[in-house]
Amino acid sequence: MIHKKRYYSNEVNFQDRTILLEGPISGKKLNEYEFHEGLIAFRKPEEQKKALIGIADLPEGRINVAVDGNTVIGYVTFVYPDPMERWSNAKMDNLLELGAIEVADGYRGAKLGTGLLELSMLDDAMEDYIVITTEYYWHWDLKGSGLSVWEYRKVMEKMMNAGGLEWMATDDPEISSHPANCLMVRIGSRVKTEDIQEFDAVRFTNRFMY
């Protein structure tokens, strides 16, 4: 299920500057921007920029960004689940994964993560998709934030809620390995019952735990 990507934008004021939230943007457009040196959660900034350009040009890939001047300071990605993950086992063309969300240090007080998620869900096409995100505490910036695991989980959950994602149970071994880890899901209003049932079968592969 591939939709035409409709562009959306919004502006946020932060410390006397105007931050542009926009997307989904193309790989060509993304290549025109600089990448903030603080975007290092997954790779070095230039390497992450190349990875995001690749995602942006996938038919189903969606990249929404926060831009200060000509510099990307935050982003969120949506793409089909990794073939190595259990979520791809359903082979559903209407299942998207919120693969990454990152905001550069120094901008985190602007609630840009929340703003990016809200912008993402303005797209009516999202009503045809089940959107998931898998949260693992070892990916969280506990040191930089100064928060405990549970404080960070609360902040993360609140941010995801702004994008309409809610906690859902699963017997996935990695998620179940620590109580702070979680699966969060948004089911679009036009998703069919049979697709929801298929997704539920992937959430719980052990029928006795269903």
TrEMBL record:
Transmembrane segments: none annotated. CDD domains: NAT_SF (cd04301). Residues 48-119 form the N-acetyltransferase domain. Pfam families: Acetyltransf_1. It is an enzyme of class 2 (transferase). Keywords: Acyltransferase, Transferase. Its EC number is 2.3.1.-. One of its GO terms (molecular function) is acyltransferase activity. The keyword Transferase applies. This is GNAT family N-acetyltransferase.
